[in-house]
Amino acid sequence: INNAYFYIFIFFFNDTATTEIYTLSLHDALPISNYIDRREVDERGLLALILFNRVAFLSEDREYGAALGPAVDAYALLGDEESYDRLIVAFSNLASWYGLHGDYRQGVELIVQAADAVSHNSTLVRVKSDLLHNWVIELVENKKLETAASLLTHERYRDSLERDEWKTLSIYIYQLQAREAAAASFGRAAQIIKDAVTSLGADPELLRSYEHYVHNNFVQFFNKQLFTEAIRVIDQGLAFMPRSSLLLKDQALVAENLD
To answer: Are 83 and 69 in contact (CB under 8 A)?
Structure first.
């Protein structure tokens, strides 16, 4: 009886940037309002100007949390384009500030709350996406894979990422979970990848990982001459990937040794 051999493999991703921390940017507050340039200002307008200036001064001092309140008040007073723009900058800066200090949850939640106050805004959408991405990567780096996976499927957050990025991060986490599981059980690793394919679709890297984990599981039984178990493993694998040349070779190998 000839021994079969294990595959040692590493998974790769085409876009390595998706597994790195994104840079978050802070924006300068809009210029301080000049009262002299305002020829006709009613009481509400004057109060809004005072609030604008307070936002600007606080932002210059990096007091982004304190700057948000006056920005909200000014928008509530005027509801015009200028107060809207200042409000977006205030929300964006505070959320980014949280992110720069590693408090991604607080930053994401702030943007979620902002959606209740302002209409859909591309700047806030981008900031929220970057914060959620960084939150997931931080969890992965801290070996909190289950938490990272649940974050990506949470109904409150999952639509925050572009579909392609969401899928890439999900694949990345499934691959890491499978690699961890393989230390104890190739069969368990194969099942994790199978679940990933069922959930995310027939991604080539996932399919390659699946057949390699199934093959390694087969090898464990085959080399111990536990042919019944080896056949079971290959039959299950081929039921999911009937055209896998690797698994078909394993099937032929065990059949040859039974003759």
So the answer is: no
In sequence order, what DSSP letters do the residues of 188-215 get, joined into one string?
Answer: HHHHHHHHHHHHH---HHHHHHHHHHHH
Q: Is 213 exposed, middle or buried (0-12, 13-18, 19+ CB in 10 A)?
A: buried
Dist. CA 114–CA 62, nearest whole Å? 20
Q: Give CA angle at 55 (25, 120), nearest 5°.
A: 60
pLDDT over 90 at 46, yes or no: no
Q: Any residues with CB less than 8 A from the CB of 19 and at least 6 apart, and which?
A: 13, 137, 140, 169, 172
Q: Do the Cβ atoms of 210 and 246 come closer than 8 Å? A: no
- pLDDT tens for 132-176 read 999 999 999 999 999 999 999 988 887 888 899 899 999 999 999
DSSP classification of residue 37: G
Whole-prediction pTM value?
Answer: 0.80
Q: How big is the CA angle at 207 (ends 203 and 212), to the nearest 5 degrees?
A: 150
Confidence (pLDDT) at 48:
85
- Which residues lie closer than 8 Å to 228 by C-beta, 6 or more apart? none
Measured CA to CA, the distance from residue 235 to residue 154 in angstroms comes to 35
Are 29 and 60 within 8 A, CB to CB? yes
